[in-house]
Amino acid sequence: MSDGSRDEIGANLARVRDRITRAAERAGRSGAEVLLVAVSKTVTVERIREAIAAGVPALGENRVQEAREKIVAIGRPVPWHLIGSLQTNKVKDALLCFDLIHSIDRLPLAEALSARATREGRRVEGLVQVNVAEEPQKGGLSPAELRPALEAMKALPGLVLRGLMTIPPLPRDPEESRPHYGALRKLLDEAQGWGLGPGFRELSMGMSGDFEVAAEEGATMVRVGTAIFGARGH
Predict the structure, then answer these.
(1) Per-residue pLDDT averaged across 26-43, rounded?
(2) pLDDT at 234
(3) Contacts of 158 (CB under 8 A, 6+ apart)
């Protein structure tokens, strides 16, 4: 890869970080409170290496198999996060690959993760996905389902719940995402009173089109791909 491409990724990363910092400061927060997860799905190993060299603090992948191949090639210089949906038959591989799973979207998946982690004598850390807009085509618990699901999940051995995640309807304007992110923030505030412990504090929300709004609304993790790597295939 050319130095020009490397410089482009570095410049994009710097711009995204600056935008996150400014957005967080508008909400009276520090940009350091927001972890930038660089979404590397379909991105080549070479470009991912350049992003790591430029300073991305974490990588996010949508598919377990694609992540496995990249981890074999790259290793673990930064944490790897699963941000896409997870089938129960991929749980074993997911535990091998990821430091954090953003997409625990149903109780049976949480139970499968717990069972595998317990069998291996380890812990798995995850976020619970909430379908705030209750879109029928998307995974995630409805807001009404969240409390009973969390009550059941928190009792599962080997599973450490760190917070909530959502994917709102694709916005035409970033402001369209604000009510969904504000709603997730309120759900986290409520859930913190349900005996989940002080570690239950993360909010994974915001992508390339609306991460500044997410940072203003309390995101502790934003998932940004296109704004760092440019447009790519799916």
Answers:
(1) 97
(2) 43
(3) 113, 114, 115, 117, 118, 122, 123, 124
Q: What are phi and psi of 87, to 5 degrees?
A: -85, 150
What does the alpha-carbon distance between residue 196 and residue 202 come to, in Å, rounded to a whole number? 12
Angle value at C-alpha 101, between 24 and 230, nearest 5 degrees: 60
Across the range 136-152, mean pLDDT stands at: 97
Ranges of H-type helices in the chain: 3-26, 45-54, 64-74, 91-97, 107-119, 143-153, 178-191, 211-216, 226-229
Nearest CA among 159, 160, 148 for reference residue 200: 160
d(CA 57, CA 51): 9
- Quote the DSSP letter at residue 84: S
Domains of the chain: 3-229 (3.20.20.10)
3-state secondary structure of 48: helix
Amino acid identity for residue 61 in this structure: E
The confidence band for 231, taking pLDDT boundaries of 50, 70 and 90, is confident
- Going by the DSSP 8-state scheme, the letter that residue 195 receives in this structure is S
Tokens of 217: 């609304």
- Give the distance, in angstroms, between the CA of residue 59 and the centroid of all CA atoms in the same chain: 9
